[in-house]
Write a structure and sequence with these properties.
alpha+beta; Aminopeptidase; 15-stranded mixed beta sheet; 17 strands
């Protein structure tokens, strides 16, 4: 039997404690020694470590920039606002006249006005119909309406391999712009950029953009800035003016119950006779950071051609809201589509504004047989979309980006932007 008295236990505990203390002391001493060694070498080689760190970070940034430039070689040689440049302020990028580049091609690309005798707009319309996109049918039979009524030149570009063979086309027409802290008053909207299906991937689109910019700068001094809209745009190397999603809805089952207006409200359809009411309201509204819209005479031409439908909600003899719709000239599986470009709410009661939208849409649905709605989720359309999604889900969502060409401007939130184009 093991027999230990209290003294034995105390002596044994004391020895253990002393051993643990000496072990801890040795461990602390080793730790302190290691700490001093590390500090010594850090201070001794501090400058070298900093230099190596800077080299690694700089190399990583250069590699990233280089990879982006290789992936988007054309755009990185154009005057656009790149995210990696971290530009600030609001200004034109290049005020001087552009120099010719490898993408400038006046040999194959010619420009026309709407009234040139040797030019046929019908050929452009047919070309767009056959080459625009395969998942739906685009038939711009009223293209001329978008190109008429402007106070500055309109440009129509054609890329031809020979006299009768159109390989690509593009149009550009001026729009008014009111943007806070921006000095420019006009931009050229680049639209209908299309390349023949079997000729894509051959740098034809970049040549048309670059050559169009040269042509605009050399033939008008209205503005140095252009405007682009990109669909299905997910790359984030250019700072956009605004990004949002466009939602598509089937509206066949939306109007089983008719929508009605309050007794104090009525809807006025904008026409030549009352269009000044629309423009007076647009020019006096201050809720948007960026407002881009056509000349009054162009809007008149679009309304006359039934390409644009603008409705004003009047409440107690005051403008309460404006709803702007456009015929997309597009068939999805043979079904007509109408687009709500934007809207302006001018009253406190949001539900009143939303109810007015459904009332107007129901009227367009019944009169023009539009069965698909495309909602551009900018301006006050976002209030309407929030209400729509409580009942219905979109069958397709397309990311949209708008960006300036040759201009630096900070990105805006969608509810602060209204682009009528």
């Amino acid at each position: 039997m093991l027999n230990l008295n209290a003294r034995d236990i105390g002596d044994n505990w004391s020895c253990q404690t002393q051993g643990q203390t000496r072990g801890q002391t040795r461990g602390q001493t080793r730790g302190q020694t290691l700490y001093h060694i590390v500090c010594h070498y850090l201070f001794k080689y501090f400058n070298i470590i900093i230099i190596i760190t800077i080299i690694i970070i700089t190399s990583a940034v250069l590699l990233y920039k280089g990879s982006r430039k290789l992936a988007h070689q054309f755009w990185y040689n154009q005057p656009v606002n790149f995210i990696i440049n971290r530009n600030t302020g609001i200004r034109v990028i290049k005020s001087e006249m552009p120099k010719s580049t490898k993408w400038t091609n006046f040999k194959n690309i010619s420009f026309y006005s709407l009234y040139d005798k040797d030019f046929s707009l019908e050929k452009i319309q047919k070309f767009l119909t056959h080459n625009y996109a395969r998942q739906y049918m685009y038939a711009p039979l009223h293209l001329s309406a978008y190109l008429r009524g402007h106070n500055s030149p309109v440009f129509i570009g054609c890329y031809t391999a020979d006299i009768n063979n159109i390989v690509g086309c593009v149009t550009a027409y001026p729009l008014n712009i009111i943007a806070k802290n921006a000095k420019i008053k006009y931009v050229y909207y680049v639209d209908n950029l299309c390349v023949k299906t079997d000729m894509r991937g051959k740098n034809i689109a970049p040549q048309m953009i670059d050559t169009l910019h040269h042509h605009i700068r050399n033939n008008t001094d209205v503005t140095k800035v252009s405007l682009f809209k990109r669909e299905n745009y997910t790359n984030n190397y250019i700072v956009p003016i605004v990004c949002y999603n466009t939602s598509l809805y089937h509206i066949d089952n939306w109007f089983h119950t008719k929508y009605s207006l309050h007794a104090s409200a009525s809807v006025l359809e904008v026409s030549k006779q009352n269009i000044n009411l629309l423009y007076n309201f647009i020019y006096t509204t201050t809720k948007f950071e960026v407002l881009i819209f056509p000349e009054l005479s162009n809007v008149e031409a679009l309304i006359e051609a039934k390409q644009l439908f603008i409705k004003i909600l009047i409440v107690d003899e005051q403008v309460s809201a404006i709803y702007m719709f456009r015929d997309t000239n597009t068939l999805y599986d043979g079904v007509k589509c109408i687009e709500c470009i934007g809207s302006i709410n001018n009253q406190k009661h949001k539900q009143f504004f939303v109810n007015g939208f459904f009332y107007v849409l129901e009227d367009l649905y019944s009169k023009h047989n539009f069965k698909i709605l495309q909602m551009e989720n900018q301006s006050d359309n976002r209030l309407i979309t929030k209400n729509i999604t409580k009942k219905w889900s979109p069958h397709n969502i397309v990311p949209i980006s708008w960006f300036f060409y040759n201009y630096i401007y900070p990105q805006q939130s969608p509810e602060k932007v209204l682009i009528l184009a």
